[in-house]
Amino acid sequence: MLYRLSALWARCEIAVAALLAGMITVLILINVATRSARMAIYWIDEAAIYTMIWMTFLAASAAVHDRSAVAVTLVGDMLSDRAKARLVAVLDLVALGFGVALGWFCWLWFDPAGLAAAGFDIEAFQGNTFNFIYAEPTTTLGIRKAWVWLIMILFTFGFLLHAAANLSRSLPAVAAPGRSGE
């Protein structure tokens, strides 16, 4: 069940990342055309950058599900099937630990408890915590950067989901390396 939910989330991530890749292409083409006409639209550069950031994080999260991230397989390739299954389980556990750490850092960064304690008053929150995440605007778009940084929460959720799903499949393989864990 967890793995199917992870697969569904990964498909959604890839679909949105593909849509964002198309948007990047359109934004860059508009940018080239307007600059050629000497009528540059400056916010397009920033929009393309933020679109690329979102695309990259979504695709990276989906890569965790597919186990298709860049890896050095030299050690794993030299191991027996049982040792390889153990190595995969350990790596999945490390990935899950990294996801938990990422979640903790997002909690500290966005500080929803501090925001709630300030009565969701952004100015009071800033005064109490010196955290300006909810008020800092982007350079040319003029939106709050917190909207751009929300990708970190989505990435962390996807990363945790995929790492937990991978671990749920690799742990049974340690007990019986001949089975796929499905």
Biggest beta sheet attributes: none
How many helices in DSSP terms? 7
- The run of helices and strands is HHHHHHH
Q: Beta fraction of the residues?
A: under 5%
Question: What ranges have pLDDT less than 50 throughout 5 or more consecutive residues?
Answer: none
Structural class, from secondary structure content? mainly alpha
Q: Helix content range of the residues, please?
A: over 70%
| Integer count of domains | 1
Quick one: how many beta strands?
0
Q: Globular, elongated, flat, extended or rod-shaped: what is the shape?
A: flat
Q: What's the N-to-C terminus distance? A: 10 Å
Spatial extent as radius of gyration: 21 Å
Quick check: average pLDDT?
92
What is the multimeric organization of the chains shown?
single chain
Task: Write a compact overview of the structure shown.
This protein has one domain (about 1-175).
Plain-language structure description:
InterPro entries: DctQ (IPR055348), TRAP_DctQ (IPR007387). With 182 residues, this protein is an all-alpha fold. It has one domain (2-175). It has seven helices and no strands. It has helices at 2-36, 43-66, 74-78, 81-110, 112-117, 122-129, 145-175. Helix 1 packs antiparallel against helix 2, helix 1 (2-36) runs antiparallel to helix 7 and helix 2 (43-66) runs parallel beside helix 7. It is flat, with a radius of gyration of 21 Å. The protein starts with a helix and ends in a 7-residue tail after the last helix. The model has no long low-confidence stretch (mean pLDDT 92).
